[in-house]
């Protein structure tokens, strides 16, 4: 799977985990040069507290376009150290 935004591959892996129709990529498959930490957080009742990254590619920023669970609840332990995308990021084969 590939995560693409603004013409660049942000992440690429054959080892994604699908939860609620979102592909969670291993963190090491995500190109950190495109990520910047966000102060945004949200809470999922069964996954826990999510943190976000903004993406910056070729001078354009997509705020809070990636999220991850630094310390997921036990029911979602399989997505620890994984990143998912939304907000116009295309996830495709």
TrEMBL record:
Organism in which the protein naturally occurs: Spirosoma utsteinense
Matches recorded under Pfam families: NTP_transf_9
Alphabetized InterPro entries for the sequence: DUF427 (IPR007361), DUF427_sf (IPR038694)
Protein name as annotated: DUF427 domain-containing protein
Domain of life: Bacteria
Residue stretches making up the DUF427 domain: 1-87
């Amino acid at each position: 799977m590939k995560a693409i935004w603004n013409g660049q591959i942000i992440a690429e892996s054959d080892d994604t985990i699908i939860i609620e129709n979102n592909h969670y990529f291993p963190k090491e498959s995500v190109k950190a040069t495109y990520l910047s930490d966000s102060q945004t957080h949200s809470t999922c009742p069964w996954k826990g507290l999510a943190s976000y990254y903004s993406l910056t590619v070729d001078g354009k920023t997509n705020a809070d376009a990636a999220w991850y669970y630094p310390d997921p609840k036990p029911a979602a332990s399989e997505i620890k150290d994984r990143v998912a995308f939304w907000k116009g990021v295309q996830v495709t084969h």
